[in-house]
Amino acid sequence: MKDVMVVIGPGSIGQAIARRVSAGKHLILADLREENANAAAKTLSEAGFEVSTAVVDVTSRESVHALVETAKSLGPVTGVIHAAGVSPTQASPATILKVDLYGTALVLEEFGNVIARGGAGVVIASQSGHRLPALTQEQNKALAITPVDELYALPMLQPDQVTDPLRAYQISKRGNSLRVMAEAVRWGKRGARVNAISPGIIITPLAKDELSGPRGAGYRRMIEQCPAGRAGTPDEVGNVGALLMGPDGAFITGGDFLMDGGVTAAYWYGDLAPT
Known about the structure:
Low-confidence stretches: none
Structural class: alpha/beta
Number of strands: 7
Order of helices and strands: EHEHEHEHEHHEHHHEH
Mean pLDDT: 95
Strand content: 5-15%
């Protein structure tokens, strides 16, 4: 049996990482929309990868567990790339919390139960998590270790506390980073690693939705005013993902790698600072 690599949300970034770490493995591409998984499978199978597809709803424990069981049946699960999510323009605060926060915690828990020794995972978070003002230590701990099915009950996540999609997104992505840190301890007991990447504006279909949406002007300003002076590419995220999942990253776990062209630096200390 071959080692198994699972990609949840096989869009531009998920595929870019998968191309670098999945040669010789069985690659499972899972998405809420079957047509998305099939499109990615066509591209990667034509590039020489052994690919199968699955439908998964990351907000459903039953659905995520079924994906885990499918992966296990094909071989040892040595890699997980979690790149599924929705943006502030695409969804309501409640949906963002459900998909981006709860869904990520659920994936980390379920796959953390089966990840093979020597395996590795990467979660795609966001620069937005780094622009959320500091939370209290109690809030950090709650986002990191509250049992997955109790996350929604946290006072800080109630509808009267999170009324804006951007706020929901920032909290979710900060939560992703914190949950990865906590899960790294548990994954480490199985001899596996897990990290997060927090990309800035990477030119993907999701980013294009944001650039043409109500926050488009702000996004364009971030691109123009950041130190790098441009948006990023999925391949650049793929390079970092390959480092984190490969042998050169063997001492890296529980980390969150911000790669945003300096947008966050400019937000806190430069021309993008809020007035």
